[in-house]
Amino acid sequence: MPEYSNMQLENYKNVWVFCEQRQGKLMPTDFELISEARRLADELGVKVCGLLLGDKVEGLAKDLAGYGADEIIVCEHPLLKDYTTGGYTTVICQAIEALKPEVVLFGATNIGRDLGPRCAARLHTGLCADCTHLDVDMPTYKNFLKENSTLPAEKIDGMGTAMVMGEQHDVSRDLKMTRPAFGGHLMASIICPRFRPAMATVRPGVMKKAPFDQAKADAVAIVKPEFTLAESDIRTEVLETVKAAKKLVDLIGADYIVSVGRGIASDVEGGIKLAEELAAELGGVVGGSRATIDSGWLSADHQVGQTGKTVHPKVYIALGISGAIQHKAGMQDSECIVAINKNSAAPMFEIADYGICGDLFKVVPMLIESIRALKAAK
């Protein structure tokens, strides 16, 4: 690979999204990231470009453009049919060198977590992993900090520069990448001030998908950059793709979530059973706080929060969950929040639309019976 210099920041523009496809099917994270990239690109005054790799995948371009992409960069080759770290890294790095984006986003999926760091290392730039929030515009970022941090307002208002290599650096055009740190007990905002592109992997489910726009889909521009790819660039061989059926809880796609917390400790089995019954009546699923997962009461795919999944259901019912900041960060954008807790001072009541101060083992059966009665009356 020829020598690559990425410190002339003014030469880089546009926001790219690596659009993951598996066997010709786009992943839901692609649409979330394209939608978020649209917002960031508007703040920067640049274009959104989807980066699509595979074999005979150009037909997927319109599906991506409908969520806000101006261009879809399509790289097709028989050696790209199956994902390999070496093959995809080689092609993506060549495209970045040629077209020079200032931001590249990957979904924090198994593939994105493998591919993003490899590309960043080869291009000698920074990558922030497992982000839950992104900003460029400083006023927007400051409002985010005021609502979600304990920093004094006067300190937030005074932000605008950062010390980089002994000099003050204007951060107004840098991507501010926020992620959980120290096991979710802190939130850290990271910038990449010296190199481009700034790269991030973004946790699935945290960004809101925009409505599909057919006009944008029809107006998409397809870009096909030149690249070279040989079998020698790929050090692994895909012999077979085997899909294993494993039943996991779909928290991200659920409209109704009933989550349990440490408040079920007096009767764990009974508390989970009540949550399952209530979720079944609502047509939803059961979630849990980190405490329930760490205690082994529920499997990890049930976890809601900074170190679990971020959800946006129509209704979120919190049973015996105190409302630590790590948990609230993963569900506070739910359309309707119902909190049930014996502790009237529980922080969850601060963000709840409806709060019931009482014993969940007495309240939940009453809720279930009321829902059943309403259904029977229809």
How many E-type strands? Answer: 19
Number of domains: 2
Largest sheet: 7 strands, parallel
Flag low-confidence runs. Answer: none
Summarize model confidence as the mean pLDDT: 90
Features:
Rossmann fold; 378 residues; alpha/beta; five-stranded parallel sheet; single chain; 12 helices
Describe the structure.
By secondary structure, the chain is an alpha/beta fold. It has two domains: 9-136 and 173-233, 3-Layer(aba) Sandwich (Rossmann fold), CATH 3.40.50.620; 256-377, Rossmann fold (3-Layer(aba) Sandwich), CATH 3.40.50. 31% of the residues lie in helices and 23% in strands. It is built from twelve helices and 19 strands. The protein has helices spanning 28-44, 61-65, 85-99, 110-123, 138-148, 153-157, 214-218, 268-282, 290-294, 325-328, 348-351, 360-377; strands at residues 15-19, 21-22, 25-26, 48-54, 71-76, 103-107, 127-131, 133-135, 161-164, 167-170, 176-181, 186-190, 198-202, 221-223, 256-260, 285-288, 315-319, 336-341, 354-357. The strands form five sheets. The protein has a seven-stranded parallel β-sheet, with helices on both faces. A five-stranded parallel β-sheet has the order 16-15-17-18-19. α3 (85-99) packs across α4 (110-123). The longest helix is centred in the C-terminal third of the chain and has 18 residues, at 360-377. It starts with 14 loop residues before the first strand and ends with a helix. The model has no long low-confidence stretch (mean pLDDT 90).
